[in-house]
Amino acid sequence: MRFKPKKADFVFIGLVIAVIVFVTLLPGPVPGDFAHRQVTSEKACMACHISGGARPLSSRHPKRPDCLRCHRQPTV
Ligand code: HEC
Ligand code: HEC
Predict the structure, then answer these.
(1) pLDDT of residue 34
(2) Would you state the pLDDT for residue 1?
(3) What is the mean pLDDT for each group of 10 consecutive residues in the chain (76 residues)?
(4) How far apart are CA 72 and CA 58, in angstroms?
(5) Whose CA is nearest to atom 42 of ligand 2?
(6) Closest residue (by CA) to atom 28 of ligand 1?
(7) Which of 36, 41, 72 to mutate to test the pocket of ligand 1 (most atoms within 8 A of CB)?
(8) Cα of 65 to ligand 2 centre, how many Å?
(9) What is the pLDDT of residue 76?
(10) Where are the domains positioned within the chain?
(11) What is the pLDDT of residue 15?
(12) Which pTM does this prediction carry?
């Protein structure tokens, strides 16, 4: 018996790929290292994440000041 994919199989595969792509595009959390636990205000983020800083944002990064709305900050 040879497997003959039906239309529903292609729809399912497409859906799986869409979910994987969506999850990889989600912003990651703020790292829980020493530098990041020191930061208490979103304004301070730009000290390092400005272009020319320790870890500049890519040019495709959204130009928004409300960092923590998208990047979760670890508690403690
Ligand atoms: C003292 C400098 C410094 C400050 C202040 C700082 N960061 Fe960072 N950040 C870094 C460096 C260096 C890295 C890359 C190394 C790492 O992962 O720790 C980084 C990595 C990140 C990453 C992960 C990037 C990736 O590759 O996934 C995010 C998200 C991030 N920072 C967000 C923030 C936010 C939001 C703030 C403000 C609350 C902030 N940072 C403040 C230096 C800083
Ligand atoms: C609208 C949501 C959103 C906001 C607000 C936001 N980011 Fe991001 N950020 C993203 C996305 C999406 C990525 C790419 C995620 C990936 O590739 O894993 C990202 C990636 C990053 C990275 C990793 C590498 C890079 O250069 O793209 C850092 C560092 C970062 N953000 C820091 C910040 C800082 C600091 C702020 C506040 C000034 C901020 N983000 C505000 C959505 C956001």
Answers:
(1) 86
(2) 79
(3) 91 97 91 86 90 91 92 78
(4) 19
(5) 27
(6) 30
(7) 36
(8) 10
(9) 56
(10) 30-76
(11) 97
(12) 0.84
Residue nearest atom 18 of ligand 2, based on CA coordinates: 27
User: Hunting for tokens 């990041």 — which residue is that?
Assistant: 36
Give the residues surrounding ligand 2 with Cβ less than 6 Å away: 27-28, 42, 45-46, 49, 55, 57-58, 61-62, 64-67, 69-71
Residue whose Cα lies nearest atom 6 of ligand 2: it is 67
CA distance 20 to 26: 10
Residue 67: how many other CB atoms lie within 10 Å: 20
* Nearest alpha carbon to residue 70 among 34, 42, 36: 42
* Reduced 3-state DSSP string for the chain: CCCCCCHHHHHHHHHHHHHHHHHHHCCCCCCCCHHHHHCCCHHHHHHHHCCCCCCCCCCCCCCCCCHHHHCCCCCC
How far the first Cα of the chain sits from its last, in Å, is 57
